[in-house]
């Protein structure tokens, strides 16, 4: 009888009482498939066939110099790096960016942007080089023009030299728009070099798949429990999928649609609904004359994407890599830290979601400990690294030596 009581007591401990705080979670087959899909990292480079300068070193040099060039803007004071700061994950530590005017959205980070299909929070651009043109010409951001950009590339000796090295034919063109496209393609070639580093999660993933128990043990147990939530009942991987932790698409996450203007008024940010309209009318999209590969599969979604009512208030799913450096979060910068983001999804107000949209999101109702675990996992998707910044500076130094 005594032995029976001992056995029953052990069963009670194993199956009834809560798990110990330091217990390592077990991942089921579905979770293991998801974890496998988050790598390997970094992914192999694939050039954009629509951009003939993609992957070309001479173009990267020109792009690195142009990225820091304030004369692309109307007032001569704003450069790409004004809002996309290397020390902040190539984003900006401000809720809403400020160009020539206060903008409605937070500047997204540029790390791993080469993996995306749509660009900008609303996907108004369908290539990295078209996305580079948009802020240059936007009167609220840099306020430039094809003529001003072309004049800069023709008259500045260093830029003219770098442009000839990158694409001699385009650099010699009398067409201002051809030089604007050259500048944008070079900016894209440079931005393709911005890859986030390997992280503690990547090491754990590889160790888990290799059954390397010593390697697995180096990953914090709290992060493992957070990963179990992320790939399990949290269903976070529905949207934050693949090696870049983003499906690259657009969703309504229950944030308000209204944006406060400088005059105190409020207006609606249509999100993806407005982005599709701008994409369709953009002369630099993949359906236009400057796409170097009109037969690319990347053209198909551009041709067929169409506005739907549910697109109102949808914004692109951002990558979660290197997110420790890109705060504040969300398209409007309304969440100052990861705790605020996790709390938003834990306490989600379903009444704010479109009734005709996808029924993906539900309040997670996380406990304090579960929230801490999920945050620990999210933190493990970042690692300090100066590689992208060092590459940026190296390209600029090369450019100066090549075209003094």
Spatial sequence of strands, sheet with the most strands: 1-4
Largest sheet: 2 strands, antiparallel
- Helix tally equals 17
Mean pLDDT: 91
- What is the alpha-carbon Rg in Å? 24 Å
Number of strands: 4
Distance between the termini: 91 Å
Order of helices and strands: HHHHHHHHHHHHEEEHHEHHH
Helix content: 40-55%
Overall structural class, as computed from helix and strand content, comes to mainly alpha
- The low-pLDDT segments are 1-21
Residue share in β-strands: under 5%
Main attributes?
disordered N terminus; two-stranded antiparallel sheet; 4 strands; 17 helices; two-stranded antiparallel ribbon; about 400 residues
Brief overview, please?
With 404 residues, the chain is mainly α. It has helices at 2-15, 29-37, 57-67, 80-83, 128-137, 146-155, 157-166, 168-171, 176-191, 200-209, 213-217, 221-231, 272-281, 299-304, 338-346, 368-379, 387-402, and strands at 250-251, 258-260, 266-268, 315-316.
Question: What report would you give on this structure?
Answer:
With 404 residues, this protein is mainly α. It is 41% helix and 2% strand. Strands 1-4 form a two-stranded antiparallel ribbon. Strands 2-3 form a two-stranded antiparallel sheet. The protein is globular and about 65 Å long. The model is unreliable at 1-21 (pLDDT under 50).
